[in-house]
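To: structure desk
From: M.T.
Subject: fold request, one chain
Message: Could you run this one when you get a chance? Sequence is below, nothing fancy, just the single chain.
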Amino acid sequence: MAELPVLVNVSLIGNKHINRGTPCEDASCTLSRNGVSVVCVADGAGGSKYTHARFGAKCAVDCIASLLCDHFDAFYFENRESISRSLLVTAVHSNMADLLVEHQLDGLERLSCTLLFVAVKGDLVLAGHIGDGLICRVSSHGVSPLTLPSNGENASSTYFITFPNAQEYLRFIRTTTDETHAFVLMTDGVEEMVYDADSQLVRPVVARLAELAAKGKEKAEEELAATIKEFVIGSGQNTDDCSVGILYLPQTPVPDFSSMKDQKAKFQRNHEDTIRSVQMEMVPKVKRAQEILSAIASGKPVENFTKAAPADEDPGVEEPVKVYNEKKEEPKASSSDIVEKKEKEDNSKEIEGEKSGLSGEKTSKTVPLWAFLLVSGAFICTAVALLLKLI
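Reply: Done. Structure tokens follow.
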């Protein structure tokens, strides 16, 4: 029978809060129950409006750890991921509601925090992440990110589990422990020291931190706390709070530390290739598809739709062509066009009258008043224009 995972977690106050005399806003926890092992970390939001963020962080990690230990199978085998994400967020919000009453708060925003978790049952893995921070997978080949930091419009902003639409930003992963030696979770206070966003490189030190868990929970937490205090928190006077969680799988291959890379080429990102640009590119096709579906729903024929032009032929088109039950708009006619058209109509009527006369039928040749006024108006406009030219 395989050994149960070793679970390790520490949360330490950073120098920024020590110097200000404010408490640590990070939280972390581990829990083993019903054959499920869970590790969670959270970072309470900084700022004057997030007055009780540390309580929100503690509530979030405790809630998720308990929920996944009791209902791992329900979340792992649910194919509708949107439901799983919504239930996780709803569970956190529901537990935080008690804090609103306890501390007499005016909204969940006061409790804002990020959230990262990994749960393992046998060979199955559930992971989730909203906001910044990092979840890494350590294998015999080295260390790599499982989820990446998620920031807002700038590096100092991020997403919180307390958002009304938090489920849209919660990354939810179902995978297995195959080739996994350990999972390491960290808040941004540690992430900023061990992760290079430009190259997507996680530094080998993360795998070494994970290996501390081989010494057992108590010893590992002691050495992990000492390492973070010295090399992370002690690196400056304005360092942030730090939380690390480790889920270590005994009897799995240890990585070869001598072969792990400490440098990597910078990733060349195309900053113009954004989701917004993809949305704009798809607009014509989406509108056309909506019209086709609408026509089908209302029983209208769809065979009149012409085949859509390839995107590279006319990338500037914003409105699809409608070809059913729609009148084409005629171009506005000038006065001379109206006169010419009217003369043709009158000539046509005269010819028809002559034909009718030959056949013995009577035809009225009275010119309508509106036609007379229209022609007269056009004549006067033309005469005035010629007069102005002569002048």
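Reply (cont.): The radius of gyration is 36 Å. Let me know if you need anything else for the meeting.
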